[in-house]
Design brief:
Elements lengths: L2 H14 L3 H16 L5 H17 L3 H17 L4 H17 L3 H18 L5 H16 L3 H19 L4 H16 L3 H16 L6 H18 L3
Helix pairs in contact: 1-2, 1-3, 2-3, 3-4, 3-5, 4-5, 5-6, 6-7, 7-8, 8-9, 9-10, 9-11, 10-11
């Protein structure tokens, strides 16, 4: 398998085997091959994304940030698909958030969502994943109205795809209840907690993640009783 695809595949094999130095060599070779005329923007972007993944594992977020930025530039110049550009923006947002560059991270989460909203159906798992990551970002930043709006969109997707009684929907309800508590909307949060507890008593309660998250919501609400 010649060219950047072959080098990328070799890099992936090394990466999954934990041989990161070897993987990095192949990813760098893939990038060099993708840059040769006629250049492949997608090949360059995929190679850069893979290099960034190695850098993150090795504790070099600044290098990962630079590679994610370069990947996004390549995709913009070469007319990359909305999904590919959204993935690059999403990756960049994640590393910026980890570096506490929160204002810029928010810009790229918004970019990723805008691109996916235009190109994917509303029930797309990839769209739901991006919505949830952005919601968690805004939640952590204390931007509760934005987090609430995005969690509600994730909930709608999960209810359509997995059912309103699914563990996936229950976990999003837990996140949403936590946001409502942070907004001071205690009665609304209690109503959601009742829905969550009903799910826990049913088949969804077999999922230990939901049982633990439901307990966290109850603890949050219990703390409100003792608040001044």
């Amino acid at each position: 398998m010649p060219g950047w695809r072959g080098e990328l595949a070799r890099g992936d094999r090394g990466f999954h085997a934990g041989r990161y130095a070897q993987a990095k060599e192949h990813y760098a070779a893939a990038l060099a091959a993708a840059r040769k005329p006629p250049a492949s923007g997608k090949g360059a972007a995929l190679s850069l994304n893979s290099l960034a993944g190695v850098s993150l594992l090795e504790g070099r977020p600044a290098e990962a940030e630079a590679d994610y930025r370069a990947a996004l530039r390549w995709l913009k110049r070469s007319g990359g698909s909305p999904e590919d550009r959204a993935a690059a923006a999403f990756n960049l947002a994640g590393v910026l958030s980890a570096e506490n560059k929160t204002a810029e991270a928010g810009v790229y989460y918004s970019m990723a969502l805008a691109l996916l909203d235009k190109s994917l159906p509303p029930d797309s798992p990839r769209l739901a994943e991006t919505l949830e990551a952005a919601a968690q970002f805004y939640h952590a930043q204390g931007r509760f109205p934005q987090a609430e709006a995005l969690y509600r969109r994730v909930l709608a997707v999960d209810e359509r795809r997995s059912g309103a009684s699914s563990p996936a929907a229950g976990l999003v309800l837990c996140d949403l209840a936590s946001v409502l508590v942070s907004e001071g909307r205690i009665e609304d949060a209690r109503a959601l907690s009742a829905r969550i507890d009903a799910l826990v008593r049913g088949r969804a309660g077999r999922d230990p993640r939901l049982a633990a998250a439901a307990g966290g919501v109850r603890a949050l609400l219990g703390a409100q009783r003792g608040a001044p």
